[in-house]
Specification:
heterodimer; A: alpha/beta; six-stranded mixed β-sheet; three-stranded parallel β-sheet; 31 helices; 15 strands; 50% helix; B: TIM Barrel; Alpha-Beta Plaits; 2 domains; two-stranded antiparallel sheet
Chain lengths: 792, 302
Amino acid sequence: MTERTARLRQRSLDTPPSLSAERAQWLTGFYQDNTGKFPVPEMRARSFLHLCQHQTIHLGADELIVGERGPAPKVVPTFPELTCHSLEDLRILNTRPKTGYRVDEECLRVYAQTVIPYWSGRSMRDRMFAQLPPDWHAAYNAGIFTEFMEQRAPGHTVLDDKIYAKGLLDFKQDIAAAVARLDFSNDAAAQRKLETLKSFDIACDALIVFAGRHAAMARELAAVESDARRKAEWLHIAEVCSHVPARAPRNFHEALQAYWFCHLAVITELNGWDAFNPGHLDQHLLPFYQQGLADGTLTRETARELLECFFIKFNNHPAPPKVGVTAAESGTYTDFANINLGGLLRDGTDGANEVSHMLLDIVDEMHLLQPSTNIQLSRQTPDGFLRHALRVVRKGYGFPSLFNADMVVEEQLRQGKTLEDARAGGCSGCVETGAFGKEAYILTGYFNLVKVLEITLHDGRDPRSGRQLGPHTGGPASFTSHEALCAAFRRQLRHFIDIKMCGSHIIERLYAEEMPAPFLSVLIDDCIAKGLDYNAGGARYNNTFIQMVGLGSATDCLSAIQHLCFAPATRTSKRHMPLQELVTCLDNDFADAESLRQRLLHRMPKYGNDDAAADTEMLALFNACIEDIDGRPDARGGHYRVLMLPTTCHVYFGSVTGAMPDGRKAGLPLSEGISPVQGADRHGPTAVLKSASKMDHVKTGGTLLNLKFAPALVATDEGLDKWLHLVRGYFSLGGHHVQFNVTTAAMLREAQAHPDAHRGLIVRVAGYSDYFCDLSNELQEEIIARTEHQGH
Amino acid sequence: MSQAGLVFNIQKYSLHDGPGIRSTVFLKGCPLECLWCHNPEGISPQREIVVVGARCLACGACRAACWHPAAALGEGCLPARMDACTFCGACVAACPTAARQMLGGSRSVAEVMASVLQDRVFYAESGGGVTISGGEPLSQPRFLLALLKACRREGLHTALDTTGFGPIGQLLAAAKLSDLILYDLKVWDDARHRQLTGVSNALILDNLKRLDQAHHNIWIRLPVVPGLNADPHNLQQLAEFVTGLRHVTRVCLLPFHRTGIDKFARLGQPHALDGVLPPPEELMEMAVKIFHGAGLPAVIGG
């Protein structure tokens, strides 16, 4: 870091997140004045323009890359058109011990006087909850699934290389050409397309206005700046902001600023999940980097400083505040912008370059929470690049995470994408695969596999509430075989997935018709060509995901039931335990049955040990998810797909799920991603990877696997090399992703005991890293309980 | 594949028993009784029962499951060692927490191979393979040869981890089927060797010289135990001996660690090295320097 970036970094770390009602206020004013005047797309674009014209802008001391979403760094706007926070919500945000946001009196006053009176009953959340059917609400309230679009807009997408070759003025020409092609006499949808294209055009103007305000302010700051060097920098910033994003960037600095303006636009227009993401940043920047070095306008040092400034901008932007179930499923400030390093070029050759290595060095030195970073590792990627990445992972921050780029391509080919589009794609959020710049791949919520099994064991009833939520598929005494139980589980699973999808169709239609995303649509092919919004199916590729949670836990439950209640008697298991008797023990949370619980914990076949007895149960569960979800039509003309990732939802889902046959007591966290149950894997990392590789990853949109390594295991060069081969081995078996925590339980216990001394300790949670001391106590315990692989 | 042996562990992702990612197969039975032994459960050529103290609930399920009349006389959990034990396994099966474990199941070559082949992809990726260790593998010579042959048939890289204390014919036969020999040396002075390991080192040193003429890839492994064999004099004499060999490709200096102490306790046995601590870094560096000084490719660990 330079002195400048060290100061910027420290300021970013030291500033606590707070809320600003400014966006909400400008937006509400605009809606009060203009409702009913324009078609919906134009209304959205004009409200975005209004924000770009009037919101406070911030150009900070020391900065080279400029622009904030809120009035200052770490100040987060709200989106009342999506979720209108109540005063109670705001008070909770202000006071909750973890992931809080400071809310001042002014904010409360604006909400009470202006925002709440207007948006209450009109926000997307209020409208969708009113439209969703009772069985959806019942399942949602029971914790069978969550809903991603309840508080945040769909998004989950990533940019490709288009903004480095074209400016918004060029996109405006594309829009004009698309308007010129409209055939109003033969295409009944032409008028709607015109309205949509007009909204795109206004959105481009809006961001040009926004950048122009930054240029003007930079000039003003230059005028009053006494330091000659900083004065020159302000003037340079002014020049950059007058050129991009209206025109294509001409150099490294402009390329970064062009992306950053687009980023701010996407996250200001709506609060889509996973913010926004430059994708293959190293590949996009390489031409500018090489050109700058060649013509002498850039040095390695200045390039690195610009990148560091760029990274700090991400860290200045905590996720929009989440409340209720959304806070429980995604309890983090991280907003999941996940930069891809390495990977493949469109022609199938290795994409790692000098900028990739520079970015790794920056990740290592700055170890910021945001942006997230990952390595796209293909057979083409040299070992030297992976070794560099592992040297960073070894430090214990949990990043970068590691992806199998060849599998990422294969997954996309299966979904019908072209080879070139697939190679230009990668991973975003936690582990989600997508075609960058060309796809709407929207996550709809987490799904609690273990809860569905619990309901199956109770004839369709949720034992927690006593409510009959699923069909009657028979009580535990009625199952005469493991197969009969599994068949009942399949009926329940299908039942709740159907409910989830019915709800998603309602929600996606609401977004398509009422809450378009005109600016994002400009950036994603083929929204302009189709005259169709991103939220309405305008992207070239459309996929909709349900994220399954608790695969390891559910597997171990079924394995235990099979072993204990149904398997043929062996010398060591003398008699079967009737399933009814087991369920009674579960209903009593193992009261007076500790010996049984221990047997369930220690003596049953468990997923994660390369043991076919358990892994066949996993495979049956996995295939059931694929059969019930994959390929079914979504509301945007695309298909439903399966993801295996939890963020922090395994903790929430565990809290609503009773004791289960894997020996887990009521209320404790479930397994996360495709990882084994915490502590159930006892045969080392190769056994975990073998178990995990038995599912057909190519049929998913991403799977998430966590491993925890003792630092001694990878301390030496030789240990690091064996680690490298371990990762390569998993990927040659078809694994999608793996990430590592290099830490010990003792280190984490120490941080728990003395949080103030360990505020900077970063650990891998599930698909993202977070400050350990910011995690809920339940999540801290869950991470400590994960198996710590030792060397032998 | 009727050949069966007593195997007390198959360790996956084994990183310190040869190159690459390996699986190490531990055979039971060893003629040496080194005071610092970190696998004491490998010494006896019989099956044994161990109790992992931390996991025991003291629930008494083991005692209730034991058919022997002697079990009915006591209370609480059964001790690890019982004179009357026939190793029927009933107590182990009854233990809810798996605190009670049977060491040394009879495993066929096919069973062992099925297990080690599970990690084949990792061996291929890393240049790893299978290491046969113990105990002393030569104490089950027929099983050892059958296992090595089976590995060869599968094209797996093989390493033999041996004390060298065995008939030379068997050693050479096993070496012929092994890509790498991990050969332990401990103490140069024979009287001291007898004192610390229970046997003379004459056969071990002689066998190593013979092996050096027949095999091209030998790693010498030397545990460094403060106060017992870590004195410069001992190390220098051993280094001098090794310089006389032609096919030693690496000398691994293994810092003593205390994991064996826990294992002695699980076996219900006392441990002689209660007061001995792992060697400090300076001691290990001094040891490396001695071997480097003799022109040998020495490393710490591995």
